[in-house]
Specification:
With about 260 residues, the protein is α+β, with helices and mostly antiparallel strands. It contains 6 helices and 10 strands; from the N terminus they run ββαααββαβββαββαβ. The protein has one domain: 3-Layer(aba) Sandwich (Protein Transport Mog1p, Chain A). Helix 2 runs antiparallel to helix 3. The longest helix is centred in the first third of the chain and has 18 residues. The chain starts with 8 loop residues before the first strand and ends with a strand.
Length: about 260
């Protein structure tokens, strides 16, 4: 039986990212030549990048492999400079989790109650805010701030935004263009490292037959944006919010 045949229901999500970003399907990126084709297409558009092809490809492959290890279904990234030689300035990963066993635990109120906020201090310590927001995909929990992690025992801080959205078992009707919370109005404001403009990026979340709880949700989608550039925290969080606010759903029936 093919992988496609095992899929009972798929909800597609769409995000808009700056058109200078590299975006990829994680499963395909680690198993096909998608990343090579992605880099070659960018080089065809900007021939000056040709000497940096190997560097770009290495950065993207490392990110795709890390994304797969972490269980992400979609990834995108911006390089620190147009040549792709200065590392990654920001990374977007999207995760789909089954959520809580109890359907009541998959509501935005329940999710928000499980995350603690940390107030900002003058000493520059990590901080975090938690709020419920409304985006085109519906109500979501937004967790943002500066987080501290240990990498090989060394403290490492990142600007982080997570937007957690219950996945509907049936995609809702999209908001009319230009209305509050519509993808059209949000997409227009997406701009950031590497240049302006936007491109549509999409991925899929899968559910088995009969999945989904009584409240019409099929787990939780988590849109995670991070950057190590904490000195630019406010600017980056504005960009991360603009990207996350373009999340929308669209139904898709897979082949059997």
């Amino acid at each position: 039986m093919s992988a496609a045949a095992t899929r009972a229901a798929v909800s597609r999500f769409t995000l808009r990212v700056p058109d200078s970003w590299f975006e990829f399907d994680v499963w395909r990126a680690t198993r096909t030549g998608d990343l090579s084709r992605l880099v070659d297409a960018r080089i065809a558009k900007y021939p000056r990048l040709r000497p940096h092809r190997a560097t770009l490809l290495t950065l993207l492959r490392e990110l795709a492999e890390r994304a797969e290890r972490q269980g992400a279904v979609y990834g995108a990234t911006a390089t620190q400079d147009e040549e792709g030689t200065g590392g990654l300035v920001a990374t977007l990963l999207v995760f789909h989790t089954p959520g809580a066993d109890d359907p009541a635990g998959n509501t935005v109120t329940a999710i928000a109650s499980q995350v603690s906020a940390t107030a900002r201090t003058e000493s520059g310590e990590p901080w975090r805010t938690v709020e419920i927001v409304t985006i085109p995909a519906g109500e979501a929990v937004r967790v943002q701030g500066v987080e501290r992690h240990l990498v090989d025992g060394v403290p490492f801080e990142t600007v982080t935004m997570q937007t957690l959205v219950p996945v509907p078992t049936a995609a809702p009707e999209p908001a009319p263009p230009g209305s509050a919370g519509s993808a059209g109005s949000a997409g227009e404001s997406v701009d950031g490292p590497g240049g302006g403009g936007t491109m549509a990026a999409s991925g899929a979340v899968e559910s088995g037959e009969g999945a989904g709880d009584a409240d019409g949700t099929d787990g939780v989608l988590n849109v995670v944006l991070t950057s190590p550039h904490t000195a630019l925290a406010e600017e980056l969080l504005d960009l991360f919010g603009a990207i996350s606010d373009t999340l929308t759903w669209s139904p898709e029936t897979s082949s059997t």
